[in-house]
Amino acid sequence: MPDFWDRATELRMVRALDACCALLGDVADSVARRAVLQRLLTVLFEAGGGTDDPMSELYAATDVLTDTPAPTGLSDQEALLWLERAQRARTLALMHEVSGWAPYDAAEVDAHPMWRVHRLGALPRRLRLLAANTGVSATGLGRAAGLAPVRVGQWAAGRSRPGTAEREALAAAFAVHPGWLAEELDSRTPADWYVFEGDCPCDCQEPVFAQSPLDGRTTGIGALVEQGLWCAGEEGCGQPYLVDGDIFHPAPTLPDGYRERFAAATGGDQPSNCGPELSRPWPHALWNTPAGPQRRGPLRLPSVLARAPGSRW
User: Fold this and answer.
1) Count of structural domains, the chain
2) What is the pTM of this model?
């Protein structure tokens, strides 16, 4: 099983776990929330099991959400435990399904590196995502913040925590509001990165939202999502959304031939700048270049990252 593991897979799991923790926290339950959780669980199952059939993992995620509806109002630790139980059950089931894995070796399952990711707290996840999504290396971050790279690595691994002055230096190096690295967020994931109220946070000057059906109009978990939106302005980020009233839930995509099941389309065509799934910074609305993620250019951080988390709620 570890043969399928690499740094890119690990980062995809960090992104999926962080978003899941936010949706299992203070986000109100809705059809859109459950549908996005379905997609995120698919990413976790596919990455942890090393499978190359995302649709099998989509069906497995559907079964989890049907048999054990995802709760809300969980703490970060409670959310991680819920997700780890779901991941473990899927991994053991997969080992029984695939020829050559039965009877399974429980010790090999326990030794898989994905469990280290499952146990990363909110602060280590956020540091890793900020570094990966902004393209700042530990060395570059340490240089910009006046900190030793080894210390940054320890914080990103969850082995220690930065002090107040160090948090402020890190925030300045990332060019984000210090509130994103405040101590009160060490044990919870802010929903601001994964749930948006009333609009897309990419700050394009002339936002255009094109409506279109998603997933053949059905999520497969006993819920109907008839319409999706995507940020379709000329300078928009192309982020696909599942919408519940005024609440926009960014929807991750599936790779290659399965993308149409995870992203909006108009007239059969998807937006050209929606980007692939969690192999790139996601949500795209937060991490895009001025001309969209398919073009080169300096990273443009939206205004949501320049103000204190939770200020829009």
Assistant:
1) 2
2) 0.87
